[in-house]
Every structure is written in C-alpha cells, then in structure tokens.
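User: Could you check the structure of this?
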Amino acid sequence: MNTLPTIFVIEPDQAIAESIKNVAAVLELRCETYTTGQEFLDAFDRHRPGCLVLEIRISGMNGLQVQQALINMDATLPVIFLTASASVSIAVHAMRMGALHFLEKPFHEHDLWSAIQEAIHIDGERRRMKSVQETIDAGVSILTEKELAVLELLADCKNKQAMASDLGVSIRTIEHHRTQLMRKLKTNSIAGLLRFALNMRRSAANVPEKSHLSGQNGNGFGTGTEEFVPHNGYHAQRSAEVPLRRRNSK
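Assistant: Sure, the predicted structure tokens are below.
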C-alpha cells in the first residue's frame, strides 16, 4: 500500500481537474481524478492518506453524500469542497459534517494550495491520534481491574507507597502489578507506563490536543459548534442565511 499522501479529486470538469493536478505537482503529491462519487468510493482505500477535493454538485451521488459515505467508513480523509454556486445552508451542512474548506469557483490556485497543505497536515494528525487510540484500546483490553487502578494512580503521579495506601495493599503487590503492566504493555520503564497512563486518561476524558483538530470530535470530524469560515475569506456564523459572496478578482 502506498503511504505517500494523495490528492483525490472528484471533478467532472476536465479543465478544473487539470488545474488541481498542477497544484498537486507543485506540492509534489500524487493526484488521482474521478468524475463521479461512486467511481471514487469504489476505488478508495480508507487507509490511504491524503485529502479529497470535490465539486459539491456532481451527477449521481452528490458531494454531501460522498462526504457522508466517508464518515460511515470511519475515514480520516479531510474534505475540501468546490462549487460554482451554493447557498449558505449547503455550506453550513458540509462544514458541520466536517468539511475543512468550501472554495468557490473560480478559485485562486494559492487558496487551493494552502487548503491542501493544511488538509494533508490534519490527515496526518488524525491518523497519528487514531493509532494512539488503537494502541490504548488494545492495551486496556488485556489489563485486569487492579492493573487499571494502578495505572490511574500512576497518572496522578503517585509513588508506590501512596498507591499501596490508596488501594489497601502492600508495596510488594504494587511492584508486582507494575511489573505485569510493563510486560503486558511492552515497556521496560516506569516512564513508559506513565506515558500510557496519561494517554489513556486523555482518551477517556476526550480532551483534544492543541492542534488543527480544535472544534472536532474524537473521530476528527466537526462538532458543528464552530464558526463557518470558508477559505475565500467569507466569514459568518453558521446560523446565518445569507448568500455566499464570491472573491473579487484583482
């Protein structure tokens, strides 16, 4: 499987598809083009990194339906919408479903270039977070209740004497549990256990890290509470029902 990021494009207009390919070439990224949503979904592997650039108005399955299909697949792929015309209600719906940007045609190549760079970075972050979550889930699944209790106390930065006091057991029992934890979690240090314990706590609390993922839920998709800020500079609260404005060419 190719692990290099790919710009996936769903665009029936060949001239625009070629323009996006040119942007991909400048960024030295792979680019695959499709004319319909179903054609893309039939070929797509959710494990492939990158981003999706698509026209919202395409024949057959429209852009919003493609976006929903990706969510149903638990895909991390960031979505950048293109459109010649769309109401704010459509843009709001797309952004609430987790779209990263909503660019109006004719778009400036610099805007698309910037949006794609951001999308590639976010996809990498989402995949990293997902990998950490999978590691946590796999580790937690093989631990006993007492071992989990020791991890929780370790996340509180308590020493073995305090752990023994809190759990009502001997220090030797705590040492035994820590040894078992290091064996099961494949680490040879208390520092390794502490990292796992802190990641486990962040995961349980669902506290987002300080990154481009702010305003998104645990799967990396939008919560629908942030403001709608398209990449062309238009700025509005998501509840607003006013026409989209085009960028004035200079």
